[in-house]
Design goal:
about 45% helix; about 5% strand; 2 strands; mainly alpha
Length: about 100
């Protein structure tokens, strides 16, 4: 035995993947906290991510996050910040 104890039971899912059963220690995030987490994952700083979520509607932020992969961005975090702040239109090929 390796000395490690399992954190949670592994559960089979309908899609064939396996996921761990949530434990009481797992954080439950609010929708705003999830948006902050997504922004930070792209590279936006934590303070800036919180500021964006506080200042702009969630729909605008989600829309720009969804469009980010369709934009040719050398610096995705900077582009995303600008897109949220200035409410960029969708990329030309976003509706294809």
């Amino acid at each position: 035995m390796s000395g490690f104890e399992p954190i949670g039971e592994i559960l089979p899912q309908a899609d064939g993947k396996r996921r761990r059963r949530p434990t009481p220690d797992d954080a439950i995030l609010s929708p705003d906290e999830e948006l902050v987490l997504e922004l930070v994952h792209v590279g936006v700083g934590l303070r800036k991510a919180r500021s964006l979520v506080d200042q702009y509607p969630a729909e605008r932020i989600e829309r720009q996050l969804n469009w980010l992969p369709l934009r040719a961005a050398r610096r995705p975090a900077s582009l995303l910040i600008s897109a949220i702040e200035n409410d960029y239109d969708p990329p030309v090929y976003a509706n294809e």
